[in-house]
Amino acid sequence: MLIQYFVFVLGFLCSTIFAASPAIHEYHLDNGLKLIVKEDHRSPVVLSSIWYKVGGSYEHNGLTGISHVLEHMMFRGTTQYPAGDLDRMISSVGGQQNAMTTNDYTMYYQLLPANQLALSFELEADRMQNLVIKQSDFNNEIQVVMEERRMRFDDNPQALTWERFMAAAFVNNPYHHQTIGWMTDLENMTYQNVRDWYRTWYQPNNAIVVVVGDVDANQVLSLAKKYYGAIAKKAVPVLKPRTEIASLGTIRVNVQVPANVPFLIMGYRMPTLATSKKADQIYALDVLSSVLGGTNSSRLQNDLVRTAQLLSNVEVSYDAFELHGTALQIFVTPMAGKSIAECEAAILKEIQRIKTEKISVDELERVKAQMIASKVYGQDSVQEQAMLLGTPEMIGLPWFVGENYVEQIKRMTPEQVQQAAQRFLQNKALTIAILHPESTAKQQPQQNLVPKNGDLYGKTVH
């Protein structure tokens, strides 16, 4: 009966999303700009976003963090619209805006009344070409970014542990450093560095515009031609591949800083949809991560938090949409009186169990229903719809990979999930980082750290 219920839920959710999905239109301007439009007439709003293929993974030592610094500078004004005009003009029509920098892209967006789309195109086309980068503005913004780094990493023991985990897990991979950058690189960055970065990467042929909302696709195309069409394209660098070196054994990292409680990160290096030719394995890994710790009813939550009362908190993260691979990461806070060694041993036992004992159909259907429900309900948001379209494009995949996600998850079998666990949850791919609190601990708030899209809290947001 339970199986029948979850099969019904899956069928209902999938039929709902696919029956209701409007047509998606893709256009290409002569200057190389790609335009993706999804009409959604349920509310009189539009989400207009522009995505640049540049982020933390495009940087090299000495310039880490520069993509995020440039994101800050993009709000400092252009030759036509001085600082403050952008926010004022968007607010005056009842809109809101923001930006985010991740490992693999930088994205700017405005949420507006549907009849104000032209305003977004006008402002974004302007700052694609005419950004003013002043020494004085740079001096202010670099201080803001350095303070952000101090708050998010240097003064946050769990985040600092995660940063060291990533640096150890990814040696010759662009994800070795965080999007926020190393502090020494921020301290030595110049406004000329930022100006050069802007001129190199912010080109129409390196950008994608994604529009979702109460619009007509043909009218959106006309607006795109009007505002973006005259911008000349320019060659952008082709980055040399940086293939990660082979894993030779489990890596261990110990961090000793003032903290309230110990903290454990266990992560297995994994492929993604961008790095693997076997997409079924990637969707199986996504399901596997949810079986382990994706929900309150997942195995680690049920077995080690509620039943054994060994863990105070556990989170599992896996992101299939990253350009240079990823890691399936497990974040653990022990219950008071329990040791890190006990937690690690218990988690490894759970991992061994999923490799040797096939997941039941009941459990798998429940997990898939929860995963699909999250995606389906997210479609009520124009922001989430835009993310689903834009993210695959930023890692070299077509937008419909995101749109087809639900159907791919629905297809996963117990055998595929077990095979993924057997192949990829290997000790030689494992990195373990442990936070050992020093006795002179400062009072730090406990946080649940679940990276998304290569950054600690999902995105670095302006």
Features:
single chain; 462 residues; Cytochrome Bc1 Complex, Chain A, domain 1; 2 domains; five-stranded mixed sheet; 17 helices; disordered N terminus
Short description:
With 462 residues, the chain is of the alpha+beta class. Helix content is 44%, strand content 18%. It folds into two domains: 21-228, 2-Layer Sandwich (Cytochrome Bc1 Complex, Chain A, domain 1); 251-461, Cytochrome Bc1 Complex, Chain A, domain 1, CATH 3.30.830.
Topology:
Elements: H1 2-20, E1 24-28, E2 34-39, E3 45-52, H2 66-73, H3 85-92, E4 96-101, E5 106-113, H4 117-129, H5 135-154, H6 157-169, H7 183-188, H8 191-201, E6 207-213, H9 217-228, E7 251-258, E8 263-270, H10 279-293, H11 299-307, E9 311-317, E10 326-334, H12 340-356, H13 361-378, H14 382-394, H15 400-403, H16 405-411, H17 414-424, E11 430-438, E12 460-461
Parallel strand pairs: 2-6, 7-11
Antiparallel strand pairs: 1-2, 3-5, 3-6, 4-5, 4-12, 8-10, 8-11, 9-10
Helix pairs in contact: 1-13, 2-5, 2-8, 4-9, 10-17, 12-17
What does this structure look like?
44% of the residues lie in helices and 18% in strands. It has two domains: 21-228, Metalloenzyme, LuxS/M16 peptidase-like (Cytochrome Bc1 Complex, Chain A, domain 1), CATH 3.30.830; 251-461, Metalloenzyme, LuxS/M16 peptidase-like (Cytochrome Bc1 Complex, Chain A, domain 1, 2-Layer Sandwich), CATH 3.30.830.10. The protein is of the alpha+beta class and 462 residues long. It has a seven-stranded mixed sheet, with helices on both faces. A five-stranded mixed sheet has the order 7-11-8-10-9, sandwiched between helices. Helix 2 (66-73) crosses helix 5. The model is unreliable at 1-10, 12-20, 441-446 and 456-460 (pLDDT under 50). The protein has 17 helices and twelve strands.
